[in-house]
Amino acid sequence: MAHLSDLDTPAAVIDIRRMQRNIERMQRRMDELGVAFRPHVKTSKSMPVVRAQLAAGAKGITVSTLKEAEFFFSEGVSDILYAVGMTARKLPQALALRRRGCDLRILTDNADSARAIADFGRERGEVFDVLIEIDTDGHRSGIKPDEPALLEVATALADGGMRIAGVLTHAGSSYDLDTPAAQQAMAEQERAGCVHAAERLRAAGFSCPIVSVGSTPTALAARHLEGVTEVRAGVYVFFDLVMANAGACSTDELALSVLATVIGHQVEKGWAIVDAGWMAMSRDRGTQKQKKDYGYGQACTLDGTVLPGYLLTGANQEHGILSREGERDPNIAERLPIGTLLRILPNHACATGAQYPAYQALSENAQVEPWSRLHGW
Amino acid sequence: MAHLSDLDTPAAVIDIRRMQRNIERMQRRMDELGVAFRPHVKTSKSMPVVRAQLAAGAKGITVSTLKEAEFFFSEGVSDILYAVGMTARKLPQALALRRRGCDLRILTDNADSARAIADFGRERGEVFDVLIEIDTDGHRSGIKPDEPALLEVATALADGGMRIAGVLTHAGSSYDLDTPAAQQAMAEQERAGCVHAAERLRAAGFSCPIVSVGSTPTALAARHLEGVTEVRAGVYVFFDLVMANAGACSTDELALSVLATVIGHQVEKGWAIVDAGWMAMSRDRGTQKQKKDYGYGQACTLDGTVLPGYLLTGANQEHGILSREGERDPNIAERLPIGTLLRILPNHACATGAQYPAYQALSENAQVEPWSRLHGW
């Protein structure tokens, strides 16, 4: 077995102990709230991570692409929700998955797509399980809880012979909030809007068994989830600097970091150059407008201890510029000599992970093993 | 053979005709300037692209990782320059490549690494060909042309029995300039600084056969390249919106685009939702501080015609928000109905390409074939 210091750099390191704690924290919270938990696996796209989530009590998974659905189904997960609006051109792929035995649920937020699903399903003799997407915070897709379109979509599905599996919402604007009170209020807005949509459907005579809500901040902030049947969250499994700024975690809970080597200095500028640039970190600058801007990442020692004030302040494709924020460190070359191994905490775990074909999973006995992950569509 | 409209979305489409023109334009310019051209393949990481560059007259390639070197060497390219500062931990990988017959040149900008290379080379009986990195614009790594460190590094290499292959610089700050005069001045600064460093080495009795400069903007802007032996450039092969803002190309010359499908609308906001989010475009917001901010990309029709004013103004992982800049389009749902296929021009071709396991190469007869590309380290 390899150790961290044996790895080629850059490498994406998962601290398994921290990941496990994050998984248990979220599952415990969901158990307390009395809802099922369906993790969004777009964050890790890696089977060992998903296996740990399911072992802790998760019921099924959420995916962001049909390729994820195909991959995790081939790995034995069959309860899968594809949480991006379905279009006609993706229906054959969804049908093929269901025909192979995958319990795939799909999503729509408009009558055109609902009719396309129904037409395709009828032609092929398939009754799709379809959730209707609700917009509870105005940040992306979905039908507002009070809009007439909700019943039009339900009618198009039901008249076309499809099963209405329920309603789904994602209060993604919770990422922009950074106080417990604001997160709680957003969690309640997400819950109330989605439950209201479910009630409108039921009042109109439609079935609506699933009421699915969630984002990492609202899942952790919710006081109660009355009327909700399941919660989805993704990034909680690793957390990241955006989530630390949002108050969802501390930097000591971040389970993903990028291992990098110091390859040079520009002493007069106080720079150490590392071999982790934007290709290794991703171009995500999610903390740029938050209360603390971490540049391209927060530097830590090899054992994961934060080096306060030392940030990846610049990035080219394979070069990162590491410097002290605020004032130049004249001793950067002595502090971080050529060859020093560092770990850099990322702004956004979903974006950083996507840059790697595999994670390097670090166990408590300080050994690492590769955990492959999915890439592309 | 497939056509564009058969592809799953999102997909990264290369317009082969445009790519070929970009390749020929750059090679012609290099021929006129009387220098060898060594394209930086970090942009495409794809063999059919590199094959077209070599066929047009390129002499060898530049890589940003040793994995690229291994891959392209296995595909038959042996003249390879690894243009990121070498560290001790990567030397065994470099040695293995040379032992297999790869004519790999490596780079350093400090005496510690130079000694590490020399010590390792001597121990293994290998004479590495090493270039010394020169900093001509203060944007990243390298030794300033006048610094005493230049001769220290050369001494460490020569005393250690290594071959000094030459000097190399990259005026990456040219990306931030947007007038022909400023680009020309930067090209001359890059050339003069690198040539000066070469002359200092020669005056001190060291050999310095290669004088290597380049970036896409300076390569296109240079008036003459006296004293330079080779030029490197990468992104010119596809160009992108950052390069269009820098004045290096027009948007009609961009050879890479992301094929996307309209999956929904928020009519009251004037939004079309597409299935190309930041995972499909990358998080690169390189035009944010340029003269025109394209958001996450410029929308085009399926045939590649720019839709003026229609930009990807927001992006989640698998959702893009497409809207008219400036004012809401009340007819967005009629203009871009559900199912519409669009092509989105990216800010930064190197970052967007990296999100895909393969490109879809579109030929003049409107057929597409997959061109695989390298991922990770």
TrEMBL record, chains A, B:
Name the CDD domains for this protein. Answer: PLPDE_III_DSD_D-TA_like_1
Q: Which Pfam families match?
A: Ala_racemase_N (PF01168), D-ser_dehydrat (PF14031)
The answer to whether the entry has keyword Lyase is: yes
Q: Which InterPro entries match?
A: Ala_racemase_N, D-amino_acid_metab_enzyme, D-ser_dehydrat-like_dom, D-ser_dehydrat-like_sf, PLP-binding_barrel
Q: Does the keyword Translocase apply?
A: no
Q: Which UniProt keywords apply?
A: Lyase
What residues does the D-serine dehydratase-like domain cover? 255-363
Q: Which family does it belong to?
A: Belongs to the DSD1 family.
Entry protein name: DSD1 family PLP-dependent enzyme
Organism for this UniProt entry: Ideonella azotifigens
